[in-house]
Amino acid sequence: MIATPPPATNYNYTYTTSSIGVSREAEFVESNRKKREAYFLSSSITAKEVLEVQLKLHFDQLKKKWLDETMFYSNPNKIYQNPNYLKIISLGKGAIPLILEDWKTSNNHWFHALNVITGENPVKPENRGRIKLMKKDWIEFIEPRLSLYVYNASRRISEHF
């Protein structure tokens, strides 16, 4: 004997926005939770800010090692070929604001690094060898372009962590 399928039943399903088995109160609670979560995430530190803090810490560590290891060097080639200095250069355009910040309190020789990172050399011929004037030339060159360097650097920052 062959079994025959039951007759087709015509069910009219109505689709609602609420999930099956979830009360309106539960939906209200979930909606408020999502709003609070969105508010919290929008008002808390962003991933970009975290990466910028990490970059600053990394830069500071490399700078300290570079200065410690080269403090008695007079040969610029040895200073610029130090592995920590080269790592700072490898940070790319993200290092530029940190170098400018460092220059506020020091006369560290960032000229070679800036030249490599930017591909530019804005130092006027008459200012070569005069640290304060070389710094001034670089700062005048970079400051109007700083937002470009920072914006373009944000993509590269995460590569170093």
Describe this structure in words.
Helix 2 runs antiparallel to helix 4 and helix 4 runs parallel beside helix 6 (111-118). This protein has helices at residues 24-43, 47-70, 76-80, 83-90, 96-103, 111-118, 131-142, 146-157. Helix content is 60%, strand content 0%. The radius of gyration is 29 Å and the shape is elongated. The model is unreliable at 153-161 (pLDDT under 50). The protein has one domain (47-160). It contains 8 helices and no strands. By secondary structure, it is an all-alpha fold.
**What percentage of amino acids are in beta strands?**
under 5%
Ranges where pLDDT stays below 50 over 5 or more residues in a row are 153-161
Secondary-structure element string: HHHHHHHH
Quaternary structure of the protein? single chain
| Number of separate helices | 8
Question: How many domain modules?
Answer: 1
- Using the CA coordinates, give the radius of gyration: 29 Å
Structural class based on helices, strands and sheet pairing: mainly alpha
How many β-strand stretches? 0
The geometry reads as elongated
Helix content: 55-70%
Q: Kindly report how far apart the N and C termini lie.
A: 71 Å
Largest sheet: none
- The chain-level mean pLDDT equals 81
